[in-house]
Write a structure and sequence with these properties.
This protein is mainly alpha-helical and about 400 residues long. The chain has helices at about 25-55, 60, 65-85, 90-110, 115-140, 145-175, 180-200, 210-220, 220-240, 245-250, 255-285, 285-305, 310-325, 325-340, 345-370, 375-395.
Length: about 400
C-alpha cells in the first residue's frame, strides 16, 4: 500500500493515511445496512414457533431458515469480493441492499418452507457480501486511529437490530402474524437503500483479491487463529440464541408478552455490550473475545441448571446479550489488523467462518433440540464457547506483540 495524495484519500489510500478525512455519514450508512441485514437474519429466532406452525414443520426444521442464510453467506463472503473486484464498491453495496429488500419481500410471501428457504438464500448472498467488505471499507472511510470507533459504530447496527428485531418481531407476530415482521423489515430495507444512495462516496476497487491471495491469508497464523476462534465461539452462541424462544416457552413456560420483554432486554444488553466491547477491543481484541465467550458459557450453564426459573432465565438471557455484544467488533478488528494489506480478502474469510459457525450452531442446536428438548441449545453452547475462550486466551493477539498481528 502506498500513501495517497490528500485530495483522493478513498481511491487508493493506505488505511488511515495521514490527513485522511473521516466520512462519518458513510460509516452511518454502513451501520444502517448492518441494521437491516441483522434484523432480517435474526427475525426467525423470535418467530420460530409461529413460523413452524404456519408452515407445518418442526421447530428444528424452521430453524434451518437460519442455516440456509448462513451456508450461502459462507460461500458468498469470499466470492463476492472476487466476482466484483473490478467494480466500484459503492455500486456493489447498493446492489447487496437491493438483494436484502428482495429477500424480505420473498420471506413475507413464502407459502412453504422451501419458498422461505429460497428467500433466505437471497439474504445469505447479501449478508455474506456486505460483511466481507464492511471492515475494508471502514478502513478507507476513516483514519487508522479511528478504525475501532468506526467499527464500533457499524456494529451499533447489530446492537440496535438485536434491541428491535427480536421483541418487535415477536410482538408483531403475535398481533398480525409472522409475515408482518418481514414486511416491516422490507420497509427498513427501502429506507436503508435511500440513505446509502445519499451518503456513500465512490469507492473504486483497490485490493482486488483472488484465490491465490485467500490461500496466502490462510497461511498466516493470526488469520487461522481468528477463524478457528470464530467457528467455536459463534457456533456456540447461535446454538443457544436460535432456539432461545422454544426454551422460554417450553422450559421456562413464559407467555408471549414475557418472551418479547426478555428478548427486548437481550437486545438492550447487546447494545451496551457493543459499546463496552468496542472500547475493550480498541485496547485488546483478545481480552474482549475471552471475556465475552467465557461469560456466555457460564450463562448457558445457568440456563441448563436453572432454566425453569423465570428470573434466572430472564437475567441469564439479558446478560447473554451484553456478553455477545462485543464479540463481532472484536473479531472484525482482529482480522483486519491481522491482514491490513488484504482487508477485503481477510474480511471475506472471516464472514465465511461466521456463517459456517452460525450454520453449525443452528444445525447442531436443532438436532439437540429435536432429540433432547429446548435445553439442547445451551448444552451445545457451553462446550463450544468454553473451547473458543481457551483458544483466544492462548492464541489471541496481544497489544504488546504487534508482529503477531501480521
Amino acid at each position: 500500500m502506498h500513501p495517497a495524495s490528500p485530495p483522493a484519500p478513498l481511491d487508493g489510500a493506505a488505511p488511515g493515511a495521514a490527513g485522511a478525512d473521516a466520512r462519518w455519514p458513510a460509516i452511518g450508512a454502513l451501520a444502517l445496512g448492518v441494521f437491516g441485514l441483522v434484523t432480517a437474519e435474526f427475525l426467525p429466532a423470535s418467530l420460530l414457533t409461529a413460523m413452524a406452525r404456519d408452515l407445518h414443520v418442526s421447530d428444528g426444521a424452521a430453524g434451518q431458515a437460519v442455516t440456509a442464510t448462513a451456508l450461502v453467506g459462507a460461500v458468498a463472503a469470499p466470492t463476492i469480493p472476487l466476482l466484483t473486484r473490478n467494480l466500484d464498491r459503492r455500486a456493489v453495496m447498493l446492489a447487496l441492499t437491493v438483494l436484502l429488500l428482495a429477500s424480505n419481500a420473498l420471506s413475507a410471501t413464502a407459502a412453504s418452507l422451501p419458498a422461505l428457504l429460497a428467500a433466505r438464500v437471497v439474504l445469505g448472498v447479501a449478508l455474506g457480501g456486505f460483511w466481507s467488505m464492511a471492515g475494508a471499507l471502514a478502513m478507507r472511510l476513516v483514519p487508522a486511529h479511528r478504525l475501532a470507533r468506526a467499527m464500533a459504530l457499524i456494529f451499533t447496527g447489530v446492537s440496535v437490530a438485536t434491541v428491535c428485531a427480536a421483541p418487535i418481531g415477536a410482538g408483531m407476530g403475535a398481533l398480525w402474524g409472522w409475515r408482518s415482521a418481514f414486511a416491516a423489515a422490507g420497509a427498513v430495507s427501502v429506507a436503508t437503500l435511500a440513505v446509502q444512495l445519499l451518503t456513500l462516496p465512490a469507492l473504486p476497487p483497490r485490493d482486488r483479491p483472488d484465490l491465490r491471495v485467500l490461500g496466502q491469508l490462510l497461511r498466516r497464523p493470526a488469520v487461522r487463529a481468528a477463524l478457528l476462534a470464530v467457528l467455536l465461539v459463534i457456533s456456540g452462541h447461535f446454538a443457544g440464541f436460535t432456539y432461545v424462544r422454544p426454551l422460554m416457552e417450553q422450559v421456562t413456560h413464559l407467555p408471549v408478552g414475557a418472551v418479547s420483554a426478555v428478548l427486548l432486554a437481550y437486545g438492550i444488553g447487546g447494545f451496551f455490550g457493543n459499546l463496552a466491547g468496542g472500547a475493550i477491543a480498541g485496547r485488546s481484541e483478545r481480552n474482549a473475545i475471552v471475556a465475552g465467550a467465557a461469560a456466555i458459557a457460564v450463562l448457558a450453564a445457568v440456563l441448563l441448571a436453572a432454566g425453569t426459573s423465570a428470573w434466572a432465565a430472564a437475567v441469564a438471557i439479558t446478560l447473554w446479550g451484553f456478553a455477545f455484544g462485543g464479540l463481532p467488533v472484536a473479531f472484525q478488528t482482529w482480522i483486519v489488523r491481522a491482514a491490513p494489506d488484504q482487508a477485503e480478502g481477510a474480511g471475506g474469510l472471516l464472514v465465511a467462518a461466521f456463517q459456517v459457525a452460525i450454520a453449525s450452531g443452528a444445525v447442531g442446536g436443532g438436532l439437540l433440540v429435536d432429540r433432547i428438548g429446548a435445553l439442547g441449545g445451551p448444552a451445545f453452547a457451553v462446550v463450544a464457547l468454553t473451547a473458543g475462550a481457551l483458544l483466544a486466551l492462548r492464541h489471541g493477539p496481544r497489544p504488546d506483540a504487534g508482529s503477531a498481528r501480521r
